[in-house]
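The protein record now logged underneath.
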Amino acid sequence: MSESILNDQIASVDESIRQITFGMKVRHSDDVRNLSQNEMLILNMVSHKPDLILKEIREYLQVPQTTLSSIIAKLEKAGYVKRIINRRDLRSFSIEITNDGRQMIDAHMCQDKKIAEDFLSALDNIEERCSFVSLMEKIAKKIGLKC
């Protein structure tokens, strides 16, 4: 593949991602839209793995301690999480998700499902949808992060 074609494809994918990202932000409710990607990731992490200590979250996100502290403080102030002493390591803190935090995750997941429906409904037929799903899975396996 020539470099010119690759550069054109990169530009096209970049523009498509920008348009999709903007469309996703517009579709999210104000509450969900006000959370950063890291804040939403932390909510998801602690809802799936409640025994994580702050150090493990920081290492996963690859952020400085001060950044993680400010993210956690914002989530605490919003009532989505609370700090608790970790049961495995009494010297460390874990984050516990609150009912409001669970509701935020549920709202986010509901809106993400709607966006996925929008993606699939933009395609003309089952073959296009199957190809799209297959390509998205391939991309996710190669560059996606696992919580």
Remarks:
- The chain has seven helices and two strands.
- The longest helix spans residues 3-27.
- Strands lie at 81-85, 93-97.
- The helical segments are 3-27, 30-33, 37-48, 54-61, 65-77, 99-121, 126-143.
